[in-house]
Write a structure and sequence with these properties.
globular, Glycerol-3-phosphate (1)-acyltransferase, 7 helices, 247 residues, 7-stranded mixed sheet
Length: 247
């Protein structure tokens, strides 16, 4: 195992590369604001590939994906585990072209947020309560009906490895109202890129894509429970307690 000073240097090199990456691809998306959002999403995917490469070169972090065949459906809602910043950067690289749901404040960040706003997302005001849910369902159903995949983090915020949190109902409600299937994703990225940690630990992240969960005729509560049960059961299989408290 490398010493912490070495890990700090490697992580610093990654962040320098990441900032450059954001400026290049972010500004490119902004400058191409007049193109279709589908084209700008292709640029975002290249940005994601580049992030993966930077992490592998500088931090020794790679990932393996199991269950890619479960993405072979026409249109779906992805509900993913949220442990780290990693999944916000890497999911674009191995999922269909997805449209994100996130707090709208992220769109105010210079360059990064501007580019994010141009990828046809749904920016939610978390403090709006029922109005935010209504926005999610209205806009989300419209995108799904147009053949666009949606992605949400049902935990809302990053959850530390080994911890569980009640899943928010928004994604399941969208599934109930729209009838589109849900694809659950579990991963242990938080063991290698912990939240609130500058250091990134080398290793291979395990990602498991679950089979499609049918939602037609089912309640949001029932859908949410099945998503929770599958993701958390899968987390038990791919997690390593020895990596839970690294900082």
């Amino acid at each position: 195992m490398e010493s912490k000073p070495v890990l700090i240097i490697r992580s610093l090199l990654f962040w320098l590369g990441f900032v450059f990456n954001v400026l290049v691809f972010g500004l490119l998306i902004v400058l191409l604001f007049f193109t279709p959002s589908s084209f700008r999403l292709k640029i975002a995917r290249i940005w994601s590939y580049t992030n993966n490469l930077l992490l592998k070169i500088f931090c020794g972090i790679d990932f393996k994906v199991e269950g890619r065949e479960n993405l072979n459906v026409k249109t779906a809602i992805i509900l993913s585990k949220h442990q780290s910043t990693w999944e916000t950067l890497a999911l674009h690289s191995f999922t269909p072209y997805v449209h994100w749901v996130f707090k709208r404040e992220l769109m105010y960040i210079p360059v990064f947020g501007w580019a994010l706003a141009l990828t046809d997302p749904i920016g939610i005001n978390r403090g709006a309560g029922s109005a935010a849910i209504k926005q999610l369902i209205t806009e989300g159903k419209k995108k799904l009906d147009a053949g666009k995949w949606m992605i949400l983090f049902p935990e809302g915020t990053r959850t530390a490895p080994g911890k569980t949190k009640k899943y928010k109902i928004g994604g399941a409600l969208l599934a109930e109202k729209s009838g589109y299937p849900v694809i659950p994703i579990a991963h242990n990225a938080g063991e290698f890129w912990p939240r609130h940690s500058f250091i990134k630990w080398p290793g291979t992240i395990s990602v498991v894509i679950g089979p499609a969960i049918e939602t037609k005729g089912r309640s949001a509560e029932e859908i949410n429970k099945e998503v929770f049960d599958w993701i958390e059961a899968t987390m038990q299989k791919i997690s390593d307690k020895s990596r839970w408290n690294r900082k």
